[in-house]
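Suppose you are handed only these lines of text.
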Amino acid sequence: MNINYVTINDCNELDRLRFIKFVYDNTDSFILNTFGHVWSGRNWWEKFPIEVCTDDTGKVLGLHAYTVNDKAQYTLKTYYIVTSKESRGKGVAKLLIKNAIHKHKDRIKIYYVNSDIKSQGAIFYKKWFGNNFNTAKNDFNSEDITFKEPIYNIIDGQS
Ligand SMILES: CC(C)(COP(=O)(O)OP(=O)(O)OC[C@H]1O[C@@H](n2cnc3c(N)ncnc32)[C@H](O)[C@@H]1OP(=O)(O)O)[C@@H](O)C(=O)NCCC(=O)NCCS
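From them, the structure of the protein bound to coenzyme A can be written out as follows.
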């Protein structure tokens, strides 16, 4: 199976609802399900186009919504990364993140992400980046772990 990597520069309201449903169908996390609200509410569909991986039939395997140099300089920040339940563990999330970093590498230095300590994201990022993270209480009676990873560790590294 080929995995295609697509930037969604143009999408109509129905496409947006399909992407929002993809997130809804593939995570139980309340925080991740705020995706539609955040991307539409901030008018980010055009400013920060999401990227997806699809299979050859066009079926979405994973979705990555991120900003570049928004609040922090030289920083790509992942807000939402979700892969379909059937395609987990096949490298789709890593591919989405690596491709995004590669695409913007001339204007960023840092990859930033935070994730609830109890989430699958926390397991995924710890496995990839190791124990170099900070923790802080979040608004959901839990803790976030935050990674600020220099991009040369990601695009030049073996991981
Ligand atoms: C977290 C998530 C995006 C990972 O997606 P994925 O496509 O399965 O990740 P990858 O296949 O690229 O994983 C890369 C590595 O992490 C490992 N990994 C990923 N999720 C893991 C998990 N829950 N437990 C153990 N290992 C995991 C993979 O085995 C793989 O290891 P390898 O590089 O040694 O082969 C996916 O589980 C998901 O969508 N979860 C629900 C939403 C979520 O929690 N998003 C993160 C919010 S920040």
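What can we learn from it? Residues 1 and 157 are 26 Å apart (CA to CA). The chain has one domain: 4-155.
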